[in-house]
Amino acid sequence: MPASTPRIKSTGLHKGEIAPGVAKVDPIIIADKVTRTFGGLKAVDVDHLEIPRNAITALIGPNGAGKTTLFNLLTGFDKPDTGSWSFDGTALSGVPAFKVSQMGQVRTFQLTKSLAMLTVLENMKLGAKKQRGENFWAALIPSLWRAQDDEIEERALDLLKRFKLDTKKEDFAASLSGGQRKLLEMARALMSQPNLVMLDEPMAGVNPALTQSLLEHILDLKDEGMTVLFVEHDMQMVRHIADWVIVMAEGRVVAEGPPEEVMKNTAVIDAYLGSHLDTDLGIVTGRIDENGNPL
Ligand SMILES: Nc1ncnc2c1ncn2[C@@H]1O[C@H](COP(=O)(O)OP(=O)(O)OP(=O)(O)O)[C@@H](O)[C@H]1O
To answer: Domain ABC transporter: where (predicted)?
Structure first.
């Protein structure tokens, strides 16, 4: 990975001894007893979790650990069996996805959701937060819509320039490469001027040149005062940009902490790298005891 401008990592994010569920000095999300079961499988079983504000947090874990399901729950795209959580001090359980994003918490998807037969610019405009028509009286005054349309277009063009997609503004999203579509999705998420940006595998399927640019964009978000939570498989990326790492396995948080600390943790090595293949992952996650009995 080519060297980039070094950025300062955020430290001192937690309070007290580091352990799964540790309290944060300034949490933007606080979740309690969040569970989600599919059939007999507990995909998410999070006792307590806090996400630090204005930092970059990576959510890692093996396939099927429950990372995407947790994203879906926190953003209102899925409903939990139990649990509650808050965003910026406001209870969010039961709040639908479109309202969650209006409140300043946006997310992207593992498989990009850009609308293929709309142009890049049209995709961007759809990401804007307040559209005319949401306010009945404003919808009756054409000059207000025009001012709003101009403002939205200006913001979209600024963001497209920043993500080097401005020359493609009239192209259909379908014609973009996988990496460009990831950039478009991130740019579109910023149209709603969020406080918290949640990125589900932003680097997956992106070529190395664009990966570097995506990483820089993620670091920029923090510099602009946003909080980032992202799912990632590649430990090197995580080490490079994350201030804090949360490790999930079998639906549970098995470790968390600053990247260097977390990567030394044996629970992480077991969950992630499977270095002790003779040990059932259930022992690491506290699902079963040493004899294989449920706990
Ligand atoms: N809609 C669903 N119906 C049934 N099972 C599901 C559903 N969504 C997720 N699961 C199951 O829940 C578990 C957690 O899946 P999830 O996609 O959240 O994991 P993940 O950590 O994001 O994995 P990956 O890294 O592969 O994306 C998996 O066993 C998965 O098969």
So the answer is: 29-275
